Amino acid sequence: MGPFEKHVFVCTGGKVCPEDGVSIAVHTRLKELIKQSGLAATIRVNNAGCMDQCGNGPMVVVYPESVWYGRVKPEDADAIFHEHLVGGKPVERLIYHPLQPGANKIPHPK
Q: 20 to 30 A Cα–Cα from 99, which one of 38, 51, 68, 80?
């Protein structure tokens, strides 16, 4: 096993997800919850670049389970933390179900 039990990646890079600041807020909230709970030695939260799911994000991925969450809002970070990271049960309503394997980008109107 590696140095952390769980590793969480939040898409804060690319052209779409960080645009409105939501993905940064999700990342910040998860880091706050982990720090407040004293779990920083077992759960790591990182910024991530584009996950090739543009238009379906912000995306959050939890490893080692490889659970992908889509369209995550800052208030959803609490559910991911309490239900999944602490409770061990993925948040079903937030799980991302791609249309196909690989990239699933929705054209971004600009």
A: 80
Can you give the pLDDT at residue 18?
A: 66
Give me the CATH number covering residue 58: 3.40.30.10
Task: Indicate whether 88 belongs to any domain.
Answer: yes
pLDDT digit string, tens, across residues 96-108 = 999 888 888 887 6
Structure tokens at 34: 């982990």
Quick check: is 110 in a domain? no
- Number of domains, the chain: 1
Among 51, 54, 108, CA closest to 62: 51
In 23-55, which positions are buried (b, 16+ CB within 10 angstroms) versus exposed (e)? bbbbbbbbbebbeeeebeeebbbeebebbebbe
